[in-house]
Amino acid sequence: MRRGLKVSLVALTGTALTLTAAGCGGKKAATSDQKTVKVGLAFDVGGRGDQSYNDSAARGLERVKKELKVTTEEISAKQDEPDADKESRLRLLAGKGYQMVIGIGFAYTAAVLKVAKDYPNTKFLVVDADQCKVSGANVLGACFSEEQGSYLVGAAAALKSKTGTIGFIGGVNVPLIHKFEAGYDAGAKKVKPGIKVLPGKYLTQPPNFDGFKNPALGSEAAQGQLDQGADVIYHAAGGAGLGVIKTVGAAGKWAIGVDSDQYAQPALAAVKNQILTSMVKRVDLSVYDFVKSVGDGTFKAGTKQYNLANDGVGFAVSGGHMDDIKAQLDDLKAQIVAGKIVVPTE
Amino acid sequence: MNAVKKLRLPHYLLIAAGLLVLLSLVRVVDGANDVTSSGTVEAMLRLAVPIFLAGLGGLWAERAGVINIGLEGMMILGTWTGAWAGYQWGPWIGVLAGIAGGALGGLLHAVATVSFGVDHIVSGVAINILGLGLTQFLAGLVFNVGHAKELGGGPRQSPPVDPITKISLPVLSGGGGTPDWLGSLEKHHWFLVSDLAGVLRGLTHQMSLLTLVALLLVPVSYFVLWRTPFGLRVRSCGEDPYAAESLGVRVYRMKYAAVLISGGLAGLAGAFLVTVAAPIYQDGQTAGRGFIGLAAMIFGNWRPGGLAAGSLLFGYTDAMNVRDGGQAVHALLLFVAVLLVAVAAWQAWRRSFLAAGLAAVAAVGLLVWFLDSDVVPGELVSFSPHLTTLLVLALASQRLRMPAADGLRYRRGEAR
């Protein structure tokens, strides 16, 4: 009997450990020789398939692979991982001889800066660099003026609302997401001063980043705002936005997507006719620009701002729900680009 | 301590009515209509059901004397198998597959603990690790390729699963295009009347059929465990397996059955997450609900009714947290303050002055906080479900009794 006990224990632990280890591995790159250019990309929480933020980055990587003929490898972040895991993930990529390493999301900022010092010959990109500050001769930080794009979709929400009440749902209560809310609020009040913007709902508080990936939270929060009379709801919650859009769509109200053009995302095909527009954040463009600049030798360290002026942010028109107000929004856009309207970020 | 009087159904109904009156009062005072709105009650149900089902799984296993700390792992297996079958063949097949996936985890637990006599905690922890690792591995293998990827899958999530049909009661809650009487009553925000309407509408409006199934499992579990010979045998294995053996009960078989049912219920909880709560499987989706389910089971004194009450409490605070947040929780400050005053009076009457003093101080503190602010900041709101869990378990742990042979190793034919 004791032997049976031991065997079963060993077998259990053995399988458990093997499978856990197997579950951690990323997608391996195809065979590569020494000369090919290799790009490594580490996703934020949510990972590929979140239909939003990470998928925008994934599109950039696909484009790079197709047009610039480079080898790529991608790794997804784990739920609730410590910063040390992010660091070792980047170190793994840099150590394997990747000439370019990309960290998606502000959570990678500290890790990128630290690892970049040890690998001076590798170029690093961190998307959404924290406070838009980076250092080092081999680090580029991509920063986005999300408040500008949010301003325009806020105006769209106010123009399309019939109840005069609109809502905003943010993933995690961090400064980056406050920019979305501030722009949305300002844009809505600009075109309709009397509009009621419900207080922004943040799904989780840091350090719990579940709010960027858990659709169940998004769904309940959206139901809460619908119950308060909102008929247009904008989310900046990454993968959790799936729940927001599905719930709002099922209720026959307008949802506004974020980061990717969510009208075109496969997992949302069932409710796409209730997606008014999306605040597009061209993470894919920043990934593409970075790889291209390193490739043709024009790489410059520091930060790069993506805004309405260089179409780094904007709004999607898929589905044609915006046709009647597009001219008005383009006018607002021109005023922001010209500096006549300054969009608040807090 | 004086003899503990047994509380019966009328007592519980009286307590519930009293709490509703108090909630209603608080709502009117603070103008926080979300405290008893039908939306909150609906959300409470949706959030409580996975906890309840996991807890019910724990209840079945522990009634048969097997501690099942692997509920979380079995739930994770249920989410994966549920989503895998659900996105291809519809949500109900997904539910069945989820039950099967969880039961598979239960079978493993039964083989280890019943046949081989492995320590229950060790086996449970191994199943938690196994469930997480296996599903992560399989998700990358299955959801990140071909057709599944085109439908929106990825290495950490599945393609979307169609939701399960939701139903509303006709006439009262607007089902099938009929008038929505309770809804119109609720909109007036009258004292007590609207609150009652809100709660009733929440329980009868837009309820998923799977929620209904979960609610029916309360009486079904009670009936099977306490009113059938099979249930009596299962429970006797949890109280005294050697005595049961001497009376001819096949203890191993009973334990196997109970742990399999336990795994199946945990799997059902997982399937609920992918077919009702969120439309997809996602890595890390269960977020410790299996363990909260165990806490709810302990709170409910290893009985289905108490477990349901515990789950609803967690569901309610969670609903406050994910819906409106700040203002509603602010109103609850007053609610808890009034309750604490009652506790203080009760303790003082029993001449337990230290406890009375502590409760009174806490009540005054909450009252000052209530008067001094308009909303509770988001950081604290997200903490409220955990705080409630802690408080309630601390207060309720006085009268609990677990099955006598729970977690003990049993070998057939051995002496005690």
From TrEMBL, chain A:
Gene3D superfamilies cross-referenced by the UniProt entry: 3.40.50.2300
Similarity comment: Belongs to the BMP lipoprotein family.
A Gene Ontology cellular-component term: plasma membrane
Entry-linked InterPro entries: BMP_lipoprotein, Peripla_BP_I, PnrA-like
Top-level taxon of origin: Bacteria
Organism: Actinomadura rayongensis
The protein, known as: BMP family ABC transporter substrate-binding protein
Signal peptide segment: 1-21
Matching Pfam families: Bmp
Keyword Signal: yes
Alphabetical UniProt keywords: Cell membrane, Lipoprotein, Membrane, Signal
ABC transporter substrate-binding protein PnrA-like domain segment(s): 42-345
Entries under CDD domains matching the protein: PBP1_PrnA-like
Topology class, membrane: Lipid-anchor
Keyword Oxidoreductase attributed: no
Subcellular location: Cell membrane
Automatic annotation (TrEMBL), chain B:
Topology versus the membrane: Multi-pass membrane protein
Pfam families in the cross-refs: BPD_transp_2
Chief subcellular location: membrane
Transmembrane parts of this sequence: 47-71, 92-115, 121-143, 209-226, 256-278, 328-346, 353-371, 383-402
Assigned GO CC terms: plasma membrane
InterPro entries per UniProt: ABC_transp_permease
Superkingdom of origin organism: Bacteria
Keywords: Cell membrane, Membrane, Transmembrane, Transmembrane helix
Subcellular localization, as worded in the UniProt entry: Cell membrane
Gene Ontology molecular function: any one: transmembrane transporter activity
Name the record gives this protein: ABC transporter permease
The organism of origin for this protein: Actinomadura rayongensis
